[in-house]
């Protein structure tokens, strides 16, 4: 819907200047992406290499899947800090289920189930318990990590079923499977947000919750749905993460994923308070973060400085978007 | 007039992005007069006042105070010239106390920088006393009624020794009683030589309190003069550019069967033992002062509030309504008051606001179809005369009247048998008001059952078949639309008369 809206909206006085500023406000993240892409291509000859490009996509796939869910949560006016911890918990439990059952299917379903359930609990706390999402998911963040550590006794658990690693380590045509999952999820969330009533309700709720309720929208159910959705996406991300190295660490896996996901959403132009933002924006936000990481590696920037650059980009992005 | 007006704006031109908003506008305000600035929404009143307030610079023309030209480069200069602007949206900080708000930005301090709290409290108390208000200066503003917030703003202006006070629709959130007090206060201010520029849509109020008026239409002055010399009709005509009927809109139409029956509805501290029934084709009015519980009553019937006892029967069937969704299923639609907070979703487009309560009508295999939405909107655009070029723009870009029409379209699309309107013409200009009245009446003629809540008695008299008056959560009187008059309604609304036995 929004993209259509954007195309048809014509400013009253169509001077070149207002047109340009309109273009910038609607598509700033894509313009920024193009600029960064071109700059990277000039700075490093290896950047444009096909393998490098595919590598970037592979590296952003996990954060990308989580960021899609985070976009939905933030559009609804909330935030989910628990994604990293829930990823570790879902990973640990799914590996145990995988090893116990010997079935890859059971392992995958367990991860989905654990993720969705944790998300569902977040949703219940936010919608029914009326706890601020920041607080509710902060609690979940601590609790989920703790349970993961307890179950795995603080260490890592590894899969013992042959073929599990194939999920993350095989290709379809030239793409790695995680990349394909990421793109499919992006398309799915895009359709959900722009082509279904659920999406419309999420935008309405994030923009004006009281008016949404007075428009006879089941606001509570939508909220629970939103957190369950991100939970299940985290479950999918957990499968990819676990399958990549056939193991998951209860202490370090998923650490700071919430920050990267939120950063991607913010760079993508979604408003912190909800109601405004685009899935496509987040896609490019994810890609911008991926390119930056990649370039810093290619140009041998100290890993200790990479966080600084990332922080800078987030702040610059927000400053440029502060146009309302 | 020997020495010229105290404040004069001469030949003001202003345009935004090539669109002319003000054209050669002159405004003279004498010392110690209450000057009404009239005009429909979009006529240029706010722009003119923002120029006086130093928010905008005029393209042409100048401002004179006491005969001297003043360049209002920024709001600070304007304030130093003794001009105070009391906005429609009140600029008080709810989490500060009364005196802290009064002295915000200009706190009294002693030599080492500590606040002189007691002195500030005393001054606050004195100023409020001259306004006839008894409020503890150390009370938190969030605990006060809206009307007090208004008074705090006015008191602030007095504290700054303002010479010109601009009031932008100050009575929107006040009860009639408070309005009277405000007028008393304005008359007192006039005596002390303060000039007031009073912006309002309510001609009756203007007639009551203003000395002179200036009418703007489409950025031009179309009339100015003494209030006594003109009748409200001619002024309305100037504002709208055409005559507006003041007659009742409804006549004794035959009603259909009873569709909703409310019996014994009570909610602790909000309303008690409410009984009434509503027929198809009927327009039932509810009026009263602020705090009479009518909004809460209908928010409960609509399921927004859940803590109530009693029975709601729709089409003879008892319904348990504890969520707006259930109310919608039972056939109740609700156009709430305070459109901005309660009704419009400002980030969604005009079309999306229209479709929000009935998404199922626009779905095909679970996916939304833009084309159906567009088609339906075109229908309502024609039906309700919604003025919008591109319905894909967000709804906050429309004028108040057009926003309200979109909200009405939303409920028409939901196609409920019963429609509740709470203050349907709040913040809407005269022309659009008439259209909304007509729309409400034609809904009843189509066989819908309509309830109209309004704090303005003339409004319910104009469009309702019968009128309920509420006071402190109870229905104190019931009138036939034709027999009702404002004075009698006020007696019941203020609690000075009660007629419970008649209701039975």
TrEMBL record, chain A:
<dbReference type="InterPro" id="IPR001851">
    <property type="entry name" value="ABC_transp_permease"/>
</dbReference>
<feature type="transmembrane region" description="Helical">
    <location>
        <begin position="131"/>
        <end position="152"/>
    </location>
</feature>
<feature type="transmembrane region" description="Helical">
    <location>
        <begin position="279"/>
        <end position="296"/>
    </location>
</feature>
<keyword id="KW-1133">Transmembrane helix</keyword>
<keyword id="KW-0997">Cell inner membrane</keyword>
<feature type="transmembrane region" description="Helical">
    <location>
        <begin position="21"/>
        <end position="44"/>
    </location>
</feature>
<feature type="transmembrane region" description="Helical">
    <location>
        <begin position="81"/>
        <end position="98"/>
    </location>
</feature>
<keyword id="KW-0813">Transport</keyword>
<keyword id="KW-0812">Transmembrane</keyword>
<keyword id="KW-0472">Membrane</keyword>
<feature type="transmembrane region" description="Helical">
    <location>
        <begin position="104"/>
        <end position="124"/>
    </location>
</feature>
<protein>
    <submittedName>
        <fullName>ABC transporter permease</fullName>
    </submittedName>
</protein>
<keyword id="KW-1003">Cell membrane</keyword>
<feature type="transmembrane region" description="Helical">
    <location>
        <begin position="172"/>
        <end position="193"/>
    </location>
</feature>
<dbReference type="Pfam" id="PF02653">
    <property type="entry name" value="BPD_transp_2"/>
</dbReference>
<feature type="transmembrane region" description="Helical">
    <location>
        <begin position="302"/>
        <end position="320"/>
    </location>
</feature>
<feature type="transmembrane region" description="Helical">
    <location>
        <begin position="56"/>
        <end position="74"/>
    </location>
</feature>
From TrEMBL, chain B:
<dbReference type="GO" id="GO:0005524">
    <property type="term" value="F:ATP binding"/>
</dbReference>
<dbReference type="InterPro" id="IPR027417">
    <property type="entry name" value="P-loop_NTPase"/>
</dbReference>
<dbReference type="InterPro" id="IPR003439">
    <property type="entry name" value="ABC_transporter-like_ATP-bd"/>
</dbReference>
<dbReference type="InterPro" id="IPR003593">
    <property type="entry name" value="AAA+_ATPase"/>
</dbReference>
<keyword id="KW-0067">ATP-binding</keyword>
<protein>
    <submittedName>
        <fullName>Sugar ABC transporter ATP-binding protein</fullName>
    </submittedName>
</protein>
<feature type="domain" description="ABC transporter">
    <location>
        <begin position="250"/>
        <end position="497"/>
    </location>
</feature>
<keyword id="KW-0677">Repeat</keyword>
<dbReference type="InterPro" id="IPR050107">
    <property type="entry name" value="ABC_carbohydrate_import_ATPase"/>
</dbReference>
<feature type="domain" description="ABC transporter">
    <location>
        <begin position="7"/>
        <end position="243"/>
    </location>
</feature>
<dbReference type="Pfam" id="PF00005">
    <property type="entry name" value="ABC_tran"/>
</dbReference>
<keyword id="KW-0547">Nucleotide-binding</keyword>
<dbReference type="InterPro" id="IPR017871">
    <property type="entry name" value="ABC_transporter-like_CS"/>
</dbReference>
<keyword id="KW-0813">Transport</keyword>
């Amino acid at each position: 819907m929004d993209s259509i809206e954007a195309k048809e909206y014509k400013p009253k006085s169509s001077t070149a200047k207002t047109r340009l500023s309109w273009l910038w406000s609607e598509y700033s993240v894509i313009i920024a992406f193009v600029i960064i892409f071109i700059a990277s291509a000039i700075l490093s000859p290896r950047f444009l290499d096909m393998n490098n490009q595919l590598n970037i996509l592979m590296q952003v796939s996990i954060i990308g899947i989580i960021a899609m869910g985070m976009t939905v949560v933030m559009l609804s006016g909330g935030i989910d800090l628990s994604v990293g911890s829930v990823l570790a918990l879902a990973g640990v439990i799914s590996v145990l289920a995988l090893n116990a059952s010997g079935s890859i299917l059971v392992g995958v379903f367990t991860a989905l189930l654990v993720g969705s359930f944790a998300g569902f609990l977040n949703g219940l706390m936010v919608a029914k318990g009326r706890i601020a999402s920041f607080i509710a998911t902060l609690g979940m963040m601590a609790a989920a990590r703790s349970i993961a550590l307890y179950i795995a006794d603080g260490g890592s658990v590894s899969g013992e079923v042959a073929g599990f690693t194939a999920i993350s380590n095989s290709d379809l045509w030239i793409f790695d499977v995680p990349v394909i999952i990421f793109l499919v999820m992006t398309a799915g969330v895009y359709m959900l947000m722009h082509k279904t009533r659920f999406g419309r309700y999420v935008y309405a709720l994030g923009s004006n919750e009281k008016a949404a309720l007075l428009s006879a929208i089941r606001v509570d159910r939508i909220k629970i749905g939103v957190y369950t959705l991100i939970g299940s996406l985290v479950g999918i991300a957990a499968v990819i993460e676990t399958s990549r190295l056939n193991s998951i660490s209860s202490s370090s896996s998923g650490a700071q994923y919430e920050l990267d996901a939120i950063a991607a959403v913010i760079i993508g132009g979604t408003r912190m308070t909800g109601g405004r933002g685009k899935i496509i924006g987040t896609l490019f936000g994810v890609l911008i973060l991926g390119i930056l990481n990649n370039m810093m590696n290619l140009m041998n920037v100290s890993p200790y400085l990479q966080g600084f650059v990332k922080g800078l980009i987030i702040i610059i992005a927000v400053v440029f978007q502060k146009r309302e | 007039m020997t020495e010229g007006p105290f404040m004069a704006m001469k030949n003001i031109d202003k345009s935004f992005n090539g669109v002319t908003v003000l054209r050669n506008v002159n405004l003279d305000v004498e010392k110690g007069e209450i000057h009404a600035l009239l005009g429909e929404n979009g006529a240029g009143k706010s722009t003119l006042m923002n120029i006086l307030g130093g928010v905008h610079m005029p393209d042409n023309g100048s401002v004179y105070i006491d005969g001297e030209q003043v360049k209002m480069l920024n709001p600070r200069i304007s304030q130093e010239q003794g001009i105070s602007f009391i906005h429609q949206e009140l600029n008080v900080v709810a989490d500060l106390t009364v005196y802290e708000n009064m002295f915000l930005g200009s706190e009294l301090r002693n030599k080492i920088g500590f606040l002189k709290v007691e002195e500030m409290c005393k001054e606050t108390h004195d100023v409020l006393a001259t306004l006839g208000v008894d409020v503890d200066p150390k009370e938190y503003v969030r605990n006060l009624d809206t009307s007090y917030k208004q008074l705090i703003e006015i008191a602030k202006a007095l504290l700054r020794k303002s010479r010109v006070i601009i009031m932008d629709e100050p009575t929107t959130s006040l009860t009639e009683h408070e309005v009277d007090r405000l007028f008393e206060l304005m008359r007192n201010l006039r005596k002390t030589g303060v000039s007031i520029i009073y912006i309002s849509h309510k001609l009756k109020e203007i007639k009551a309190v203003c000395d002179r008026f200036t009418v703007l239409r489409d950025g031009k002055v179309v009339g100015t003069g003494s209030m006594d010399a003109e009748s409200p009709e001619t002024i309305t005509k100037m504002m709208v550019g055409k005559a507006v009927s003041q007659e009742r809109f409804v006549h004794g139409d035959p009603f259909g069967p009873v569709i909703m029956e409310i019996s014994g509805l009570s909610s602790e501290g909000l309303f008690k033992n409410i009984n009434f029934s509503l027929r198809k084709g009927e327009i039932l009015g509810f009026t009263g002062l602020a705090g009479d519980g009518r909004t809460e009553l209908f928010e409960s019937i609509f399921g927004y509030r859940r803590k109530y006892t009693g029975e709601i029967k729709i089409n003879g069937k008892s319904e348990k309504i504890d969520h707006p969704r259930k109310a919608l299923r039972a056939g109740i639609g609700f156009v709430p008051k305070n459109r901005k907070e309660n009704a419009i979703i400002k980030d969604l487009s005009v079309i999306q606001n229209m479709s929000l309560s009935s998404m199922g009508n626009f779905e095909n295999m679970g996916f939304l179809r833009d084309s159906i939405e567009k088609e339906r909107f075109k229908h309502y655009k024609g039906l309700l005369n919604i003025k919008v070029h591109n319905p894909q723009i967000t709804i906050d870009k429309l004028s108040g009247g057009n926003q309200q029409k979109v909200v009405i379209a939303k409920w028409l699309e939901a196609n409920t048998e019963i429609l509740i309107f709470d203050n349907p013409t709040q913040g809407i200009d005269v022309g659009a008001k008439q259209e909304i009245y007509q729309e409400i009446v034609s809904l009843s003629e189509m066989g819908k059952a309509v309830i109209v809540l309004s704090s303005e008695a003339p409004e319910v008299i104009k469009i309702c078949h019968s009128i309920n008056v509420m006071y402190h959560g109870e229905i104190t009187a019931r009138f036939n639309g034709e027999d009702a008059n404002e004075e009698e309604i006020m007696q019941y609304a203020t609690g000075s008369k009660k007629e419970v036995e008649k209701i039975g």
